[in-house]
Amino acid sequence: MIQIGIPELLVLTLVILFSVKPENIQHYLKNFLKFFVKTQDTLSTTKEELKKELKIEELKQDIFNEEKLKEFARNEDEQR
Fold it and tell me: In whole angstroms, what is the distance from residue 5 CA to residue 13 CA?
């Protein structure tokens, strides 16, 4: 993911303020927010679809169960 900190946001804001006419700032902000929300929604949807397709939670549970079975088998061998 892209990590943008406070200093980067301040520089970006200053560049926009000095390069855009004051009457157009509202228009650009609306478009930017629409783009940001749309992108965020798309990424969220894609993430959920990938989770469903790959069945990540089931795989995690299977791995956990296998580890517990191995641990149980080791403990059983140690007791003998």
Answer: 12
Distance between alpha carbon 37 and the CA centroid of its chain, in Å? 14
3-state secondary structure of 37: helix
Alpha-carbon span 80 to 77, nearest angstrom? 5
**How long a stretch of residues is the chain?**
80
Helix (H) / strand (E) containing 70: helix 56-79
Domain-wise residue ranges, the chain: 6-79
**Report field, pTM of the whole predicted structure over 0.85:** no
Confidence at residue 1, expressed as pLDDT on a 0 to 100 scale? 57
For the chain, what is the largest distance between any 2 Cα atoms, rounded to a whole number of angstroms? 82
Distance CA 31, CA 48 (A): 26
Nearby residues of 16 by Cβ (< 8 Å), 6 or more positions away: 25, 28
Q: Are 28 and 16 in contact (CB under 8 A)?
A: yes
